[in-house]
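Please review this one.

:::
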Amino acid sequence: MIQRFDAGPRMSEMTIHNGVAYLAGQVPEDSGADMATQTRQVLAAIDDLLAQAGSDKTRILRAQIFLADLADFAAMNEVWDAWVVAGEAPARATVQAALADPGWKLEIVVTAAV
């Protein structure tokens, strides 16, 4: 069985299959905010979706982080490091990418155990 959350005509915010939650790329609510604020907004959205799945950030298996500008890497990591539970950091990749909205500084995709 596949569960779909917030399914729309183009995508779902999250799908769950065989005990694994796959989140769509999460982006900030405020495209005019600084990197720290945008990162906090994205991580809060991830927390909310994982809670809906009956999971949490300690169960994230993999995170893919897309930054519009690698110059923001340190500012993003400062917020990330405060959010990640010590000893529970997931596998992670961070790359620079052109994002769909020019105001977005990052997008994060996670996969988590449920």
